[in-house]
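Lecture 7 notes: from sequence to structure.

We start with a single chain of 153 residues. Read the sequence below before looking at the structure.
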Amino acid sequence: MDEVVARTLVLFDAKRPPAGEMPVMLAAGASSVLLHEAIGHGMEADFNRIGTSIYSDMIGKPVAAPFVNVVDQGNLPHELGTLNMDDEGNATGRAALVEKGILKSYLHDTISARHYGFDPGGWICGKGGQSVPVSIGMPSALVSRMTVGGENV
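Now the structure, written as tokens:
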């Protein structure tokens, strides 16, 4: 109980942080999970194919500032999150989801890739370590990255 009181008393002297827009730099690695959770699920093609994603009608339209590029690349050698094959047996690859703020593609399984006219790309992952059922995801979420002006961030 003494520890709880001591921690609470420290908070009384805490200063309010500044509010408003400000530049933010995320380190490589686990911050990619934040990127995935913020926008990645909405960019899974199965949701877009049935119209349940905010991005369903946004291909070719701006979804971010013009300096933002979002790439998921599951085939970078020796990187955490890299896979050779997804759980459908497709080789992992590189997907430029957002280029210069414009939504260019979704993450595809074999069915949605056929529907949209894309290669599957290797984004299928089993749930809970199982191979069935599978879903579209970012198995290489730790290799997802945002770039600014062509530079990796």
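The longest strand covers residues 68-73. Keep this in mind for problem set 3.
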